[in-house]
Design a protein that fits this description.
By secondary structure, the protein is an alpha+beta fold. It is 15% helix and 13% strand.
């Protein structure tokens, strides 16, 4: 998992794990890279998106899912808490 692309984390401010551009010493789960606005300067969308990283091909993300699908009320509560924290 380490060394392919750095993982875009939920806080949107850091990447973790290192990527193919990094030295071998940087390929570990504690490696962090702060967000740089230049990565999405060439976003072709209107309005621009903080998730469009035209100049950051070293960023990836991990898709996860719960073992047991939560009911609608639990899922709604989770997203309300997540979005309220931003």
């Amino acid at each position: 998992m380490l060394g392919n692309v750095a993982e875009w984390t939920q806080d949107r401010l850091t990447l973790k794990g290192g990527c193919f551009r990094d030295a071998a010493e940087q390929l570990h789960s504690a490696a962090r890279l702060p967000y740089d606005r230049k990565w999405n300067a060439r976003d072709p969308q209107i309005p621009r998106s903080k998730w469009w990283n035209t100049d950051a091909p070293f960023i990836g993300f991990r898709i996860i899912r719960p073992v047991k699908q939560p009911d609608a009320a639990t899922a709604e509560k989770f997203y309300d808490q997540l979005l309220a924290a931003k």
